Amino acid sequence: MNKRGQDVFGMSFGMIFGIIIIAAIIAVAFYVIAHFLNLQKCTDTSLLYNDLQNEVDKAWKSTNYQDTFSVKLPSGIDFVCFGFLNQSASNLNDREKQDSLDEEYSSRSKDNLFLYPAKKTCNLDLGANKINHVEINGFFCVEKENGKLDVKLSKSSSEALVKILNDK
Q1: Is the whole model's pTM more than 0.85, yes or no?
Q2: CB-CB contact of 79 with 145 (8 Å)
Q3: Distance separating alpha carbons of residues 62 and 157, to the nearest angstrom
Q4: Region of residue 146 (left: phi > 0; alpha: psi -120 to 50; beta: else)
Q5: 47 lies in a domain?
Q6: What is the DSSP letter of 136?
Q7: Of 143, 141, 167, 144, whose CA–CA distance to 85 is shortest?
Q8: 10 within some domain
Q9: With CB atoms counted within 10 Å of each terminal CB, which end of the chain scores lower, N or C?
Q10: pLDDT (tens digit, 9 = 90+) per residue, 111-167?
Q11: Alpha carbon 118 to chain centroid distance?
Q12: What is the rounded CA–CA span in Å between residue 68 and residue 153?
C-alpha cells in the first residue's frame, strides 16, 4: 500500500533525511571556513605587533638606525595609529580617529599602537598594543597603502629610544 506522505512529495523519509544531513554538513563547513579566516586575521595582527617590536628592538640596540618598516596589515584595517590617547593629535583627521579609539580603549593608557577602525580587528583586545623602547611625538595615524603599513624608524647614537616618525 502506498504511503500518503510519499504521494505528496514523491520522496521517502530516508531521502528527505539525507538532504537535511547534507545541508547541515555544508552549513558547518561554511562556519568552519569563516572561523579559520577570522583566525588568520588574529594571526596577522599578532605578527604585526611581533614584527614591529622586533624591528624596534633591532634599532634600539643599534648605534645609528634609519629604515622603513613595512608589514602586511590585516584586512579591514585602514590605519595604524601611534601615540598615547592623551597626547595631542597631529591634525583633525587623526583627532577624530583618536576620539573613536578613546571610546574603545579608554582603560588602556599604556598602549601606544592602535589599529583603526577598532571594530574591524579580530577582537578588541588585539586592537591595541604597547611597543617598547620607542619615542612617539604626539598622536598620529599612518594610512595603509597597497595593503601594507610603511613606517619610518630612526635612532641616532645620542638618542636612547627609537623614534617612530610621522612623515606625512
Answers
A1: no
A2: no
A3: 8
A4: left
A5: yes
A6: -
A7: 141
A8: no
A9: N
A10: 999 999 888 777 777 888 999 999 998 899 999 988 888 999 999 989 899 999 887
A11: 8
A12: 6
